[in-house]
Design brief:
This protein is mostly helical. The chain has 18 helices and no strands.
Length: 394
């Protein structure tokens, strides 16, 4: 397949400078050199963006080359993620937490008071949850609520997972607000601090999340290259990162991923525990699987099962949206809640549209299967009244 030409090409000198900066950025045991490289990288990105009239695709190309330089450094890193790190990295997908949930109790137990000081475990979790849910609703003014977490950002503890989660939300909030240059600079802060953790699983998690955020990067094959490079260095035990990468590969536009590859990614995803995927991702996976099986060997029965799973996850998403609405009703003043309610309503409309699309697809599958059954019935009826050799009526 012909490669799409890359817009805003980076010159050889620019690439060489980026390569040298990444070398210093990844320097182990030399925090001064790393910190200087971090600031130089920010200026390098800002200058490159300004040179290209702050075009979003120019920033995307710079990020693509930066990440391609970073990924090889991850290959030989040790993998020894703590149970606390694994739990907290998976915590975001479980929000919101009700006051009486076991997950809330477990989260409070797993959080290190030194990492959440001086907010405390309860205060940190409350602010983290509020900011994350606002971002999930595409609320553009989340930055105001993230200010409460400034005390966590200032925490200098090495490998502080709580700080990394806050920095992750900073980057996501800039993206939702449409501040694309600030978003990429925020991602640089995330990766810089993640490298202080010195664990491959943890660093890889945040690099993958950055690539996930690049939905706007064109051509799409650039993001595909990054995802494939990241998948190649994940280990068999790292199902969390594998799940995210596989889903992003599976969800690429049709012109970027072949039907055969899409089915291959689908089969791998169905083998990964559902706990590593979000409700909306699971709904999309089973909806596609149901559509594919309706025309495959498993036929009607397999497609019905998958559509049932898809409907189940739509219901789960509907319940999640209701819980989020209740959470904000409880936490916000009437004025604040009315402002956020617009975003809840937009998500509700999207979900209703999704339900209608799936219902139509299921009806079409039923109709197609009925036609096939009807044709087979007539063939059997014909065979019962005609001689199979002569074609004459019995």
């Amino acid at each position: 397949m012909a490669q799409v030409s890359k817009p805003f090409p980076i010159s050889g000198d620019c690439k060489q400078k980026l390569h040298c900066l990444v070398e210093d950025f990844c320097a182990l045991g030399d925090p001064v050199k790393k910190a200087a490289a971090q600031q130089k990288l920010k200026r390098h990105l800002t200058d490159y963006s300004q040179t290209n009239s702050h075009h979003i695709q120019a920033m995307g190309i710079w990020v693509y080359h930066f990440l391609q330089e970073i990924i090889p450094y991850l290959v030989n890193l040790p993998t020894d993620a703590s149970d606390q790190a694994a739990f907290l990295l998976n915590l975001l997908t479980e929000l919101p937490l009700s006051d009486d949930s076991e997950m809330l109790h477990s989260a409070l137990q797993e959080l290190d008071p030194q990492q959440t000081a001086p907010l405390g475990n309860n205060g940190f979790l409350h602010q983290l949850q509020m900011a994350y849910l606002l971002i999930e609703l595409d609320y553009k003014k989340t930055g105001h609520y993230l200010q409460e977490l400034d005390l966590i950002r200032d925490n200098e503890a090495e490998g502080n997972i709580c700080k990394l989660l806050v920095l992750l939300l900073d980057a996501k909030a800039e993206g939702v607000a449409g501040h694309f240059l600030d978003e990429q600079i925020a991602w640089l802060d995330v990766i810089f601090n993640a490298c202080g953790n010195a664990d491959k699983h943890v660093i890889l998690y945040f690099v993958v999340q950055w690539v996930v955020s690049l939905q706007w990067l064109r051509p799409n094959n650039l993001r595909k290259e990054l995802l494939l490079s990241l998948y190649a260095i994940t280990e068999k035990t790292d199902q969390q990162n594998q799940a995210v990468i596989l889903y992003e590969l599976f969800n690429l536009p049709e012109k970027t991923v072949t039907s055969a590859d899409k089915r291959k990614y689908l089969e791998r995803l169905l083998q990964i525990p559902a706990s590593f995927l979000t409700v909306s991702q699971l709904q999309n996976i089973y909806y596609y699987s149901g559509s594919v099986r309706a025309t495959g060997k498993e036929g009607f029965a397999g497609s019905v099962t998958d559509f049932q799973y898809s409907s189940y996850y739509i219901h789960r998403y509907w319940t999640w949206l209701g819980n989020v609405n209740k959470y904000f009703q409880k936490q916000f003043s009437p004025v604040e809640y009315l402002d956020v309610l617009k975003n809840v309503q937009n998500k509700t409309k999207e979900l209703i549209n999704l339900m209608n699309i799936q219902s139509n697809a299921f009806v079409e599958t039923l109709e197609s299967s009925y036609k096939k059954i009807d044709e087979l019935y007539h063939k059997v009826e014909e065979l019962s009244v005609r001689d199979s050799l002569t074609g004459l009526y019995n």
